[in-house]
Amino acid sequence: MRTARDRIHNRPRALLACLALLSVAAGASAQVYKWRDERGVTHYGDKPPASSRQHAEVLKVTAPAPNAPAALPYELARAVQASPVLLYTTARCDACDQGRTLLRERGIPFQERTVDSAEDQQQLRLLGGGNEMPLLAVGSRKLTGFQAAAWHEALSAAAYPRQKMLPPGYQFAAPVPAGGAPMAPATPPVRARIKMAPDAAAAAAAQTAAQQPRSPPPAAGNAPPDFQF
Fold this sequence. Notes:
This is Glutaredoxin family protein. Residues 198-229 are annotated as: Disordered. By secondary structure, the chain is α/β, with parallel strands linked by helices. Helix content is 34%, strand content 16%. The chain folds into 2 domains: 4-62, no CATH class; 74-177, 3-Layer(aba) Sandwich (Glutaredoxin), CATH 3.40.30. It is built from 6 helices and 8 strands. Strands 7-6-4-5-8 form a 5-stranded mixed beta sheet, covered by helices on one side.
């Protein structure tokens, strides 16, 4: 038999469950109303009380998004950040299918780029690829053609786990055309501009003026009578 103490002890848990259900029903970020009736009983609801005499307090409750991606384990996330994996494939390519299967079975997060158009091929050539497919890029390392042993070695050298560590429900990214994938813009060389102190700037200007060729003196016939050289 439940005592009054048990009911008081379990009340916060019931209130938390109520708030969670209300937030899920109303959306990821919802407003929950809290008020007391004439008898002093506290109520929670997704709508304000019907009586205008009852003052309702608005509570903002945030629930996690149902389709939010799960975080990767630390070891895997560190490898992805240090050496991202790109897979370039084309249609009707058995070796491409085998390479994709290897990455999925090992649990390697990767971005797939399809090479079907002339623009895609141009993008592949800019990366140093040729006509043989697939092309696997693990960080700055590139491997042409599918060789399971070489691919595993490259992934292990980049500190990717040997065993699959993807969280439950993980979804691999959808393939996108290589020509339409954004590229990191090349960084032009930047020349540093040094702002000189006033004294140093004046000295530099004087030195520059001293190095300029001097104009020849005017001819003697054109000088005034009292002018001396």
